[in-house]
Design brief:
four-stranded antiparallel β-sheet, 28% strand, Rossmann fold, alpha/beta
């Protein structure tokens, strides 16, 4: 088994996930080995049934593999308890969902503050306002979701993820409910966050969205079918991927 690289933020080794459906076993992941580095901007693609949702759930510490290992910042999270996984989710992973997942009767500011309250983080209001400012919504802090456009709702969701100061932002189809122009605006925000040092992983079925990331991982039948830099990948990203391929 390959050993994780010292500079890998995420190191998956021989990752398998098997579900029992009735009397049948479904092999959602069939031995995925993968490194993702700090400050990468990655798209994960694949057709229905390819395993991308399963992989996202494992990366987000919402599920654990049947076999293999998942190291995040050097910790093998595949061996943690449910409470241990919850701590990782609260401290190291920020989630952005297709349907925004905002509380409808709560202001944008309070929606952003919510995970900070659960984590008992001090200075919650200041951190939430700073996150809203980063996505250009400080002037909408007192608005409720029904007073916001779809793009503004998604920016609130991104601010909520940012307020936790996570190592990784994990976005599941973040442009799926948006028109093309608004989707591109959201991707521009992700690009700005990446340029500022944030690691971002986007799960998408849209090729044009994937092309705006810097690396595209495609799954098929529970295996990695391809792992290539996109046309927008930086020189440093391309060199990291080439080095990873040469040493795997």
């Amino acid at each position: 088994m390959d050993q994780p690289q010292s500079n890998s933020l995420i190191a998956l080794r021989d990752l398998e996930k098997i579900y029992r459906v009735g009397t049948e076993l479904v092999h959602a992941l069939r031995g995925v080995t993968l490194d993702i580095f700090s400050n990468e901007f990655v798209a994960i693609m694949g057709p229905s049934g390819s395993g991308k949702s399963t992989l996202m759930n494992i990366l987000g510490c919402l599920d654990i593999p049947t076999r293999g290992s998942y190291e995040l910042n050097g910790t093998d999270v595949s061996k943690l308890s449910q409470s241990g996984l919850a701590k990782i989710r609260g401290r190291q992973i920020g989630f952005v969902f297709q349907n925004f997942e905002l509380l409808p009767r709560t202001t944008a500011l309070k929606n952003v503050q919510l995970p900070l309250m659960y984590a008992m983080v001090p200075k919650r209001r200041q951190r939430a306002m700073a996150a809203l400012e980063r996505v250009g919504l400080a002037d909408r802090a007192t608005h409720r979701p029904n007073q916001l456009s779809g793009g503004q709702k998604q920016r609130v969701a991104i601010a909520r993820a940012l307020a936790q100061e996570p190592d990784i932002i994990l976005a599941d189809e973040p442009t799926g409910n948006l028109d093309s122009a608004t989707g591109n605006e959201i991707m521009s925000i992700f690009e700005d966050l990446h340029a500022a040092g944030q690691t971002i992983i986007i799960v998408t079925h849209e090729p044009d969205i994937a092309q705006q990331c810097h690396r595209i991982i495609t799954l098929r039948d529970g295996l990695i079918a391809s792992d290539v830099p996109s046309g927008r990948a930086s020189v440093s990203t391309r060199m990291e991927l080439e080095t990873a391929g040469a040493t795997s």
